[in-house]
Amino acid sequence: MHNLDDVYADYELLEPDDRYRLLIDLGRALEPMPDALKTDATLVRGCSASVWVYPAARPEGGLHFLADSNAAITKGIIALVLLAVQDRTPSEILATDVDAALAPFELGRQLSSNRTQGIPNMIALIRQTAERLAA
Q: How far apart are CA 89 and CA 83, in angstroms?
């Protein structure tokens, strides 16, 4: 995956339709999530599409997230969220303002409210996992 700054450098130059394609491509590039991990326990509540996020602790202390969605653009959005936190330690994740990191993308202006309504819940799930493991 890229980092958020690299993705934004491309994103800001694109027309709206091409921005959708970029998000879809980001979602396609996500590491595959095994179907066995797509359970009620990993389902993010409050999303219009189904979104699953599974955290795995790395031996070196970072958190690695697997994620998937049944909607292509939503999968791209979760890919953006993960770019802000992937493989960071729980304390680094808690110190990261994911909303601020995503703000330049203006997702609320680019996408329908149905597509963006679950973003806070995705971020909250990631933060809760980091809080639990940081304790």
A: 14
CB neighbours (10 Å) of residue 109?
8
Asked whether residue 115 carries a pLDDT value surpassing 70, the answer given is no
CATH number for the domain running over 4-134: 3.90.1010.10
- Parse the chain into domains and list their residue ranges: 4-134
Catalytic-labelled residue, pool 26, 47, 80, 98:
47
Contact 67, 30 (CB under 8 A): yes
What pTM value is reported for the model?
Answer: 0.90
Per residue in 21-51, pLDDT (tens digit) is 999 999 999 999 999 999 999 999 888 889 9
Rg (CA), the chain: 14
Predicted confidence (pLDDT) at residue 116 exceeds the cutoff of 80: no
* Interval 75-101: pLDDT, tens: 999 999 999 999 999 999 999 999 999
DSSP state of 43: B
Beta-carbon contacts of residue 2 (< 8 Å; ≥ 6 apart): 83
To the query of whether residue 47 is one of the catalytic residues in this protein, the response is yes
